[in-house]
Design a protein that fits this description.
The protein is α/β, with parallel strands linked by helices. It is 25% helix and 22% strand. Helix 4 (131-142) links the parallel strand 4 and strand 5. Bound molecules: succinic acid (SIN).
Length: 314
């Protein structure tokens, strides 16, 4: 049950939820990341009933997300989560890379309190913006008894960090949890839960101190299998000193023989290689003749973050 009155930290990073268009009927010709967090919150009817402390951590279109913003966001989350009187954190974020930030934060925080990313598909200036309801739903999740871990709330649906993915370019209900299904729904401020929250893990927080403030993060690139795929891109990346490669294979992580050969050579040369799939649903299942390791149920973009963190923390 949600409890209005619990203190929630709202960390703003930009996105369409803070976007401005030239007129109320323009839902796509806007500039993201224009409205500051105080104005964003002030425009939400009913927000006054909540005890909220707000911070502007970044003001960007999430397509331009950087490792520096991720690190700062993780540190600010850790700060607020450590305050005994704070029940949880809400992060306003662009939809385009929300699933990556959610996965990253769960990997480095695995918090015992909830961290709830929310967003909007329409700018703040729209005739019927979706951001205000999404923020209220996110607050309800952040204040819910028993809530924990990093989740995303969009269109009244609660998605776990591991499974959430943007699936639609335009619809307000733009996210899916694939065949795992959502954690639950927010209905008139109340939660209807279908499955458990992401696991809390105090050891994960150790990773925070190892996130580089200035040095470059390991370079991990994504390549894709497709008809006519070859090894030239892999060879070019290896010659540039890439640290890791994630390949978005076809089907059950299958690869064109030329791409497979180049990736196997890269692996033999010391580059970490992980096989995911370009299929939006279903994990890559291991086979006895596998030459390249598989990403355990992770999409290519999330497998990339997992590999980057593995390289960073070893
Ligand atoms: C962004 O990801 O920052 C822009 C797009 C959006 O939020 O829907």
């Amino acid at each position: 049950m949600q409890v209005i009155g619990k203190k929630i930290a709202v960390l703003a990073t930009g996105g369409t939820i803070a976007g401005r268009a030239s007129g109320p009927q323009d839902n796509i010709g806007y500039t993201a990341a224009q409205v500051g967090v105080q104005d964003l919150l002030a425009g939400i009817p009913g927000i006054g009933a909540w005890s909220v402390v707000a911070e502007q951590v970044a003001q960007i279109d999430s397509k331009d997300m950087t490792f520096a913003v991720w690190r700062e966001l993780a540190l600010r989350c850790a700060h607020w989560l450590s305050q005994p009187d704070v029940a949880g954190v809400v992060i306003t974020h662009g939809t385009d890379t929300l699933e990556e930030t959610a996965y990253f934060l769960q990997a480095v925080l695995a918090p015992a309190k909830p961290v709830v990313l929310t967003c909007a598909m329409r700018p703040a200036t729209a005739l019927a913006p979706d951001g205000p309801q999404n923020v209220l739903d996110a607050l309800a999740v952040a204040a819910a008894d028993g809530a924990r871990g990093v989740v995303a709330v969009c269109a009244a649906t609660i998605h776990g960090a591991h499974d959430v993915a943007k699936q639609h370019t335009y619809r307000l209900d733009a996210f899916t949890s694939g065949d795992a299904g959502p954690i639950g729904y927010v209905e008139e401020g109340r939660l209807r839960l279908l499955r458990d929250w992401p696991a809390a893990d105090r050891a994960a927080a150790l990773a925070l101190g190892k996130l580089p403030a200035k040095d470059p993060w390991p370079r991990v690139e994504i390549v894709m299998n497709h008809a006519g795929a070859g090894g030239a891109i892999v060879q070019a990346l290896v010659s540039q000193g890439v640290d890791g490669l994630v390949v978005a294979g076809t089907g059950n992580g299958s690869l064109h023989r030329d791409l497979q050969e180049a990736l196997t050579q890269a692996q033999d040369a010391g580059v970490k290689v992980v096989r995911s799939t370009r299929c939006p649903q279903g994990p890559v299942l291991a086979r006895s003749d596998d030459k390249l390791p598989i990403a355990t149920g992770l999409s290519p973009v999330k497998a990339r973050i997992a590999l980057m963190l593995e390289l960073l923390l070893r």
